[in-house]
Amino acid sequence: MEERVESWRVTLRDFKMTDVEDFMVWATDEEVAHFCSWEVYKSREQAEKYISTEAIPHPWFKAICVDGKAVGGISLNRGEGHARCRGEIGYVTAAHCWGKGIVTQAVKLGVSAAFQDLPDLERIEGLVEPQNLASQRVLEKAGFVKEGLLSRYLNFKGKTRDFYVYRILSADFPVEAHP
Amino acid sequence: MEANHGMGDKSSTCSVGRVQLRNFCLADLDDLYEWASDEEVTKFMTWETFKSKEKLREFLVKVVIPHPWFKAICFNGKPIGHVMLKQGTGIQSCRAEMGYAIARKYWRMGFTTQAVITTLKMGFKELQGLKRIEALVLPENVASARVLEKAGFVKEGFLPNYVHVKGTVRDCLLFSYVV
């Protein structure tokens, strides 16, 4: 039976080096990495290097936490130049978080925080493969709209892949009161 | 229509019908200025309209000539427009964005469609790993949408708040051609 985790227990914060063991829980899991462009992590050193050289310095990359403990990550990759009005959201969590409302809540928090932190960001998009039904449901529940299917859009792990593109606009995003 | 190919290197040329695509050279400056300085042409592009030949010369030398794929569209040997392909890197290397423009006096004669068809032939042959060519069109640019449809592109979606054009965030139609 699925156990729902109350929304208030899900928070976002910056990554810390002390998150490395929690990071390894999802980063070494083949099931988690299945739809991701990266290969599973093989060592603690590799994880530490990623956290210190990529996750922490990233312009917008947060740890997804349940009761303060890191269970995943969410990032916003901003376009440059003519594309600076848009950004692509990416997220990953440990498999034990799936099906409990955690990922949807993290995406809602992430979208709200990104639109607040980046004032001239007008559009956030998410790319999901057609077979990744769980992630499509997350985006739909978080208020994203499916715009279309982009054929042969990205290539990784030996395959050129199609992606659904979803979007949410700052103009449509409900402004909620923040504590 | 016969297509004459170079040996898949930067100096390749190709003809379809009455237009030929070839690399730009410094001697093309005056011809390039004709459409690059025309507001009626550039209003649908992310380019700023060029107001001086000096500035355009700098662009020709620094951007156009060294570019991996930036061709002059020639009619009777004279450049009447340009078409360029910007290929992505890393996981985006399977796709390239196409941009093009033709001098106003050569509009509505079928030149642009022929140039786009030639680009499809050359681009997929010459750019390593390319599986997708995409084009963004402003919704009011009906003529360009028709060119793409005639050349066999598929309209994948309407993307609101997608790109900055002349300081304003604009909606776009996204077209693609995949192999």
Could you name the key traits of this structure?
heterodimer, A: 179 residues, alpha+beta, Aminopeptidase, 7-stranded mixed sheet, 27% helix, B: 179 residues, 8-stranded mixed sheet, disordered N terminus, Acyl_CoA_acyltransferase (chain B), GNAT_dom (chain B), acyltransferase activity, transferring groups other than amino-acyl groups (chain B)
- Which residue ranges of chain A are poorly predicted, with pLDDT under 50 across at least 5 consecutive positions? none
CATH fold node name of chain B: Aminopeptidase
Q: Beta-strand level of the residues of chain B, as a percent range?
A: 25-35%
Q: What's the helix count of chain A?
A: 5
Q: What fold name goes in the CATH topology slot of chain A?
A: Aminopeptidase
Q: Order of strands across the widest beta sheet of chain B? A: 1-2-3-4-5-6-8-7
Strand share of the residues of chain A?
Answer: 25-35%
Structurally, how many domains make up the residues of chain A? 1
